[in-house]
Design goal:
- It is a single chain.
- The chain is α/β, with parallel strands linked by helices.
- The chain folds into two domains: about 270 residues, no CATH class; about 55 residues, no CATH class.
- The protein is built from ten helices and 20 strands.
- The strands form two sheets. The chain has a ten-stranded mixed β-sheet.
- A hairpin with a 2-residue loop joins strand 1 and strand 2.
- Helix 2 packs across helix 7 and helix 9 runs antiparallel to helix 10.
- This is Fe-S cluster assembly protein SufD.
- Belongs to the iron-sulfur cluster assembly SufBD family.
- It comes from Cyclobacterium qasimii.
- InterPro entries: Fe-S_cluster_assembly_SufBD (IPR055346), SUF_FeS_clus_asmbl_SufBD_core (IPR000825), SUF_FeS_clus_asmbl_SufBD_sf (IPR037284), SUF_FeS_clus_asmbl_SufD (IPR011542), SufBD_N (IPR045595).
């Protein structure tokens, strides 16, 4: 295939000319070939496109990354994990990825409560699942991941399984001075009547530029209940795109909590497809940005059937020259009567140079629904600040208390106590550094 030479395709050319990751076993060659064709046709998004009008990650990658070929893996990854505080404080099933490559020997062995397969071991029916929820035409970076991933995993939570301990999904990332491009891929299948918590963290070994382009798909069967917690606390040279999509069957629940604290430019796309009745989709996020950090959260909830509910709350605290973007969409289809859908985005700007772009949206075709959306952007409540200071609390301590109360509404959505405590501690530390 001849790659387009249009200027907008410069990044596509670099990826397609340096990577040859068509699956050697032939299992996923159809998906990878289709992804390559899609990239060649569409290119990557620019500021001219509505969905990326505030986030020019295409240019940032070109400016920062000099290497596009498959990344090298880290040799001493076991020592790295032993030295990480959060990794060692969390008990549970641990799945390790080394620059995107699944490390079966370092990961927890299955005890029957869940099953992990590398994509190379999938059967023909399982192969068809990959790319069926997060399709290559939803986002160009999904297509890039579909073409470039080398070692995806499929996680099966069997019917009726109730995992008492969480699954900890850990990415260990390392790069040299030329940067690195890493494309983690995972597919989760939660069987009927199952319950599980997945906690996702990333460990960076150096400060070199990294482009981390992740795709996750969730197939959640009837009466399954999944909690997904993700911590983005990397370093200032991280460029990241995350595409996460879930399908919910009857009586299912999917709860996402996202904490974004560090990174040069991060784009998070989260979609929940409510495909049956009595489902609940929850989306919560807190982004605390300083320096020149840029975080863009795009969410999408699609209500297709009646008697379901979605709750969405994203909160931002921005200082210095940071920038936050929130774009939330709720669709209520004609057949989705008796839907309850709520969306809220609240922000506090602590600097005159901080920027926030927010766009909550509702599209409703049903007439018997309860839906609301809204956003607020402002500064700290001066009356509340005065109240605390009048009772002998110093200015900086009073400010931290108010900001923590603001963030706490999202942190309270984390039900795993050890992980919640860790997140509370790093939020306290971040707030204590704000002047």
């Amino acid at each position: 295939m001849t790659v387009s030479t249009k200027k907008d395709h410069q990044l596509v050319e670099l990826f397609l000319s340096t990577q040859a990751n068509l699956d050697k076993s032939g299992l996923l060659i159809e998906l990878k070939s289709a992804a390559k064709s899609s990239l060649d046709e569409t290119g990557f998004p620019t500021l001219k496109e509505e969905e990326y009008k505030f986030t020019n990650i295409n240019k940032r990658i070109l400016d920062k990354i000099k290497k596009y070929a498959s990344p090298n893996t880290v040799n001493n990854i076991g020592d790295v994990l032993e030295a990480n505080q959060l990794f060692n404080s969390l008990e549970g099933y641990k799945l390790i990825r080394n620059n995107g490559v699944f490390e079966a020997e370092l990961s927890s062995k299955s005890d029957g409560s869940f099953i992990v397969k590398p994509f190379s071991d999938l059967n023909s029916d399982e192969v068809k699942e990959i790319g069926s929820i997060e399709t290559i035409n939803k986002d160009p970076f999904t297509a890039l991941n579909s073409y470039s991933f080398e070692s995806g995993i499929r996680v099966e939570i069997p019917e009726g399984a109730i995992l008492e301990q969480p699954i900890l999904l850990v990415d260990v990332i390392s790069a040299d001075a030329n940067g690195e491009c890493v494309h983690p891929r995972a597919y989760f299948h939660a069987g009927k009547n199952s319950q599980a918590t997945v906690i996702e963290i990333t460990i960076f070994l150096d400060e070199s530029p990294v482009f981390l382009n992740e795709v996750q798909e969730w197939n959640i069967e009837s009466n399954a209940h999944i909690r997904h917690y993700k911590l983005q606390d990397g370093h200032k040279a991280e460029l990241g795109v995350s595409n996460t999509s879930s399908n919910l069957a009857r009586d299912a629940t999917f709860t996402s909590v996202l904490l974004s604290l560090n990174g040069e430019m991060l784009r998070n796309n989260l979609s929940i497809n409510i495909n049956d009745t009595n489902c609940t989709g929850n989306m919560y996020g807190i982004y605390m940005l300083n320096g020149k950090t840029h975080v863009d959260n795009h969410t999408n909830v699609d209500h297709k059937m009646p008697h379901s509910e979605s709750n969405e709350l994203y909160k931002g605290i921005l200082t210095d020259q940071s920038r936050g973007v929130f774009n939330g969409k709720i669709f209520v289809r004609k057949d989705a009567q008796k839907t309850n859908a709520f969306q809220q985005n609240n922000n506090i700007l602590l600097s005159e140079e901080a920027i926030l772009n927010t766009k909550p949206q509702l599209e409703i075709w049903a007439d018997d629904v309860k839906c609301s959306h809204g956003c607020t952007t402002g500064q700290l409540d001066e009356e509340a600040l005065f109240y605390l200071r009048a009772r002998g609390i110093g200015k900086e301590s009073a400010k931290s208390l108010l900001l923590y109360a603001f963030a706490g509404e999202v942190l309270d959505k984390i039900t795993h106590e050890t992980f919640k405590k860790y997140c509370e501690e790093i939020v306290h530390e971040r707030l204590g550094a704000i002047k």
